[in-house]
Amino acid sequence: xxxxxxxxxxxxxxxxxxxxxxxxxxxxxxxxxxxxxxxxxxxxxxxxxxxxxxxxxxxxxxxxxxxxxxxxxxxxxxxxxxxxxxxxxxxxxxxxxxxxxxxxxxxxxxxxxxxxxxxxxxxxxxxxxxxxxxxxxxxxxxxxxxxxxx
Length: 150
Prior knowledge:
With about 150 residues, the chain is mostly helical. The protein has five helices and no strands.
């Protein structure tokens, strides 16, 4: 393969990498329905968070480094592998640090779709009894709960 062919190949790979990430995230989030399990929603949320964090990190890299655009083959190799590294770092950050944010997104999606804790895994506890929780809150506050607003 000559230099021109290698350059064209790298440009195609670089363009396809970004498009594939966006399509994967769109497909994952678009597959959420009222029949989705918590695990499926969590995976979709993590895909979305990873994609967004990756975009933020790439923009930060652009503004911090102020590098000139390189048209040579080595520059394209560097960009391709650096972007792959950023994607991996973003994924690790979401897995390691995204816990409560991810859980909040998942809980909100489940509320929006009216999903009540469905899961493909066995659960030890069926969850809290809403009536008992309401009574407990009322006792703590010294008031009576007459209704819950969504």
